Amino acid sequence: MKTEVKSTCCYCGVGCGVLIQAEGERIVGVRGDPEHPSNRGRLCTKGATLNLTTDPSYRLHYPERRSERGQGTTRTSWGEALDEAAERFAATIRQHGPDSVAFYISGQLMTEDYYVFNKLAKGLIGTNNIDTNSRLCMSSAVAGYKQTLGVDAPPCSYEDILLANVIFIAGANPAVAHPIIFRYIEDARAANPDLKIIVADPRRSESAEIADLHLPIKPGTDIALFNGMLHVLIGDHLVDDEFISSHTTGFAEQAEIVERYTPEAVAEVCGVPAQDIVQAARWFGQNGAALSIYCQGLNQSAHGTHNNAAIIHLHLATGQIGKPGAGPFSLTGQPNAMGGREVGGLSNLLSAHRDLANPQHRSEVASLWGVQSVPDKPGKSAIDLFSALKSGEVKAVWIACTNPAQSLPNQAAVREALQAAEYVVLQEAYANTDTAAYADLLLPATGWGEKHGTVTNSERRITHVNSAVPAPGEARHDWEIAVDFARRLGARLGVDASRLFPYADAETIFNEHRESTRGRDLDITGLSYKRLDADGPQQWPYPQGATYGKGRLYEDGVFPTGDGKARFVPVRHLATADIPDAEYPISLLSGRMRDQWHGMSRTGTVPRLFNLEDEPVLAMHPCDMRHRGLSSGDLVRVANNRGESIVRVEERPGLKKGRAWMPMHWGSQFMNTPGVNAVACDATDPYSKQPELKHAAVQIEKIDLPYPLAVVRRCANQSEALALLQATRHALARYPYATVGLYGRKSPLVVLRAATAEALDDTAIGALDTLFGIDGSDGAIVYVDSKRRVAKKAVAEGGRLLAVRLCGETQAVTWLRQAMAEDELDASLIRFALAPLGKPPVGVAPRNIICKCADVTDVQIRQEMADGADMPKLQEKLRCGTFCGSCVPEIRRMVAEYAPTEAAAA
Ligand code: SF4
Q1: Which of 9, 463, 465 has most ligand 1 atoms within 8 Å of its beta carbon, as the pocket-test mutant?
Q2: Nearest ligand 1 atom to alpha carbon 597
Q3: With contact defined as beta carbons under 8 Å apart, do 542 and 526 qualify?
């Protein structure tokens, strides 16, 4: 019997509600929850394919231990595993003190998981060494809100997007990173033709396509832009003097600072025309309800806190806060980074938005937890924590639900730190993340569809997440693992941990967390699991006695600061941490793609999510390419003094000269380097300690690897493809350039691309064929041209192409993978797989699937456009872009590109 269980999407901070369809112990489908107020039934491509990410072959099923680094693991029992961990942690704490151990956890955890980990570190062990990957994502937003508005609380709701008259998107690309937010923006545009949309982004991103004004500022010049806009607002008398005097402090000082930020001076710093800065400011100040939407582009910077403060100033100066359609709206990156912030899940925070530095707050938390005290020494934030592991100051680390061996910047240093650590515990749902290789103990945790608890999304909305299926193998919930460990550790440290951790279920933890919020800005004492189930997801604050949460904060103009007034903080433009110079002249930007999520441990298991891009392509400006003798498709080395990566380069629109862009998703599981984080900058913001992940100065040079090779292998099903993918990973190190990924529509494929300086000899080719299971001669056609060092092989099975291995000449791989994914190659066409220069047979046109929901390719769209279809007709006829809408910017671009071509032809 099929059941439907309410849950949320586990990817981004939009926090879309989903209905998980389960049959017995299997997830068989997913759809958007039409009753969830945040997404109203909509999902993007990633959310809509969540049911395809539950293949058990990638999961960690049992506790495993590794007796020696570099060796394999052996299965152990939960009892043995947790006793070992407790013994090692207790011994380390006894010998070196509580600060010799640390926890590094995740914005993917449930709020209840987070709460327990925080109490374990700060309450039981007595160390504040607990930080989270939210440090990489949201800590500048936290610090920016706190410095200006008093507390860490995004004041807006998604509904405000529909009510805005001007939307200012800065350092965010919701079209691909928060697609359902972008649907709101498109709805707002459709409902209000006078809506002005401004996008500030060094790259002409997918979101910029909808903008009335795009400001392609130089990387790291956000403060100069915002200060310049404030200068114009003041000069044009567009500030709200009454609001400023009644509800803010510090305006005069910041006004004096921005006197020097004339449009001309700012134009020079930001590299955008002065009149565009004036236009942006006037639209912001003249149109009424002004909403700014921002994310990692502001946060992931060595001055991220002041980036946030400077954009918030625009709202304080114009009084555009606490009103419908107005306010500074920071989008959360991870699904429950907000929940983590609520329970104080960072090394400088305490439960319910309390500050570690505040003695009163420490004492309140100690009393709530029933411990003598909470330590006052600040804990180590993410970057410092890994430096301390490397130096030996921290000796043992417990990592939960995150993958620092991919996601942290300056990977060489991070991996050295993990290698140097005396003891590493990894609590994970997946068996094969990059961090797993460094773990002495691997503990299997539940994943999406299995977990339960609560999560909070970007608009402060709490959703009760339910388990749809049981955990695979012996996997346990994250909070259960932490509680069990806490009790065993407590016994060894002489503490009655059963009293501190009495929880029998997640609801008991939620209730304790709820009590910690009483009287605080995020008071949720009126909420319970029962109420969330009965009334649906609710926004905080929701105090006892309330019947609904608060959609919009500060409507009364009173801010949670000592004097009730919001604060202007003095902010000035600062240079980026990594300034391009003669040695490293290119500004490398990193960003997200529509169909992948973070380090791909989940999205990387779904073949169709690779159809848009199946390798990490570096985008460059044509002048920079010409200067280096590069053509699209060439291989380049991207390097700086932190590391390097070899990737394929392409000329792509949207970048200014001197800037390049690379997706952040690919790491060592899908290529032979840690990807963009090999070179990413680990300088941090002084207030938030968030690293400058978004930007690095690099050199890019052509690399001569004249012998390309590629293998495309069709698999019977997803499990077979994942097993082959896993086996292939171990071979990536053999090649100077190598990526491996999936692809697929009807049939799942594994695609390997590599290149070498010397042609592979017969032994190496044989090893490759063996790896892909095509070493026999049955059904095989071989083409060898020794003079050109070309060696190709195609293998058919049952009249269908099973695999192609191409050495020395690989042009065919693009159309081959598409045709194989479509099952278009019957036996009569197989010989084309080996044809010189790899031309496709007539009738097999290269194609990309643009709309995954409606299964529509670019070829179909072009055919319709040739018959005169515009955007509405395409949507009506092919239904593309009418489901999740993630592909709408892509289709719009195709329509826009097609129109001028046609006009020119006429
Ligand atoms: Fe998931 Fe997409 Fe919604 Fe984000 S926007 S929560 S990735 S469905």
Answers
A1: 9
A2: 7
A3: yes
Q: Within 13 Å and on the Cβ side, how many CA atoms surround 50?
A: 27
Query: What residues flank ligand 1, with Cβ below 6 Å?
Result: 9, 11-12, 14-16, 39, 43-44, 46-47, 178-180
Its pTM stands at: 0.93
Determine the pLDDT at residue 827. Answer: 65
Coil vs helix vs strand at 492: helix
Q: What is the pLDDT of residue 852?
A: 67
Strand locations in 559-687 (E)? 566-567, 586-591, 617-620, 635-640, 643-651, 659-663
How far does the centroid of ligand 1 lie from the alpha carbon of residue 884, in Å?
Answer: 10
Alpha carbon distance 55, 722 (integer Å): 9
CA of 16 to the centre of ligand 1 (A): 6
HEC per residue, 149-195: HCCCCCCCCCHHHHHCCEEEEECCCHHHHCHHHHHHHHHHHHHCCCC
For residue range 111-137, list pLDDT tens digits in order.
999 999 999 999 999 999 999 999 999
Rounded distance from Cα 42 to ligand 1 centre (Å): 9
Whole-angstrom distance, CA of residue 42 vs CA of residue 26: 23
According to the model, what pLDDT value does residue 904 have? Answer: 46
For residue 99, what are the β-bridge partners? none
> How many angstroms separate the most distant Cα atoms in the chain?
85
Q: Pairing mode, if any, of strands 17-23 and 2-8?
A: antiparallel
Rounded CA gap, 769 and 698, in Å? 37
Distance CA 32, CA 49 (A): 11
Cβ distance 611 to 890 under 8 Å?
no
Rg, Å, the chain Cα set: 27
Residue 142 sits at φ, ψ, to 5 deg, of -60, -50
When pLDDT is cut at 50, 70 and 90, the band that residue 880 belongs to is confident
Contact in structure between 658 and 587 (CB atoms under 8 Å): yes
4: its two tokens: 């439907």
Contacts of residue 901, Cβ cutoff 8 Å, sequence gap at least 6: none
* Residues paired with 587 in a beta bridge: 659, 697
Give 168's contacts (C-beta < 8 A, 6+ positions apart): 198, 200, 280, 284, 290, 291, 292, 293, 311, 314
Three-state secondary structure of 318-329: HCCCCCCCCEEE
How remote is the CA of residue 180 from the centroid of ligand 1, in Å?
6
Residue in the block written with tokens 């749902």: 429
Q: Determine the 3-state secondary structure of 565 from DSSP.
A: coil
Q: Percentage helix, strand, coil, to 5, in the chain? A: 35, 20, 40
Report the C-alpha gap between 468 and 478 in whole angstroms: 16
Dihedral angle at the C-alpha atoms of 545, 547, 552, 556, nearest 10 degrees?
-50
- Please write the tens of the pLDDT for every residue from 202-221: 999 999 999 999 999 999 99
Cβ pair 388, 95 in contact under 8 A:
no
Which residue owns the Cα nearest ligand 1 atom 4?
A: 12
**Ligand 1, residues 8, 10, 12: which to mutate, most atoms within 8 A of Cβ?**
12
Strands (E), 295-377: 327-330, 349-350, 354-355
pLDDT, one tens digit per residue, over 60-89 is: 999 999 988 889 999 999 999 999 999 999
* Pairing assessment for the beta strands 101-105 and 396-400 based on DSSP bridges: parallel
Mean pLDDT calculated for residue range 778-795: 91
Is a pLDDT exceeding 90 seen at residue 845? no
> What DSSP string runs through 703-757?
----EEEEEEEE-SSHHHHHHHHHHHHTTGGGSSEEEEEEEESSSEEEEEEEEES
Residues 6+ apart with CB under 8 A from 676: 588, 590, 616, 638, 645, 662, 663, 664, 666
